[in-house]
Design brief:
three-stranded antiparallel sheet; alpha+beta; 43% helix; 3 strands; 3 helices; Arc Repressor Mutant, subunit A; single chain
């Protein structure tokens, strides 16, 4: 899987226009938030497509990054 297809909480925060701490909270409290795709070097990574799909389904807008 190309690296650009994986995003961490910092990138997700940028995509959603929120702070990283909010993404952390969503990942722990929202049962609909996508499950991590990988854990590399202490970073939790998600598939970009899963985040985009989740954002669309929950009415969140994706910012141009």
């Amino acid at each position: 899987m190309p690296e650009s297809e994986l995003v961490g909480r910092v990138e997700i925060a940028e995509m959603l226009g929120v702070v990283r701490q909010y993404v952390h909270r969503l990942s722990h409290e929202d049962p609909t938030f996508p499950k991590p795709a990988a854990e590399i070097g202490g970073r939790t990574l998600y598939k970009r497509a899963d985040i985009e799909k989740w954002a669309k389904a929950t009415g969140r807008k994706i910012q141009a990054v």
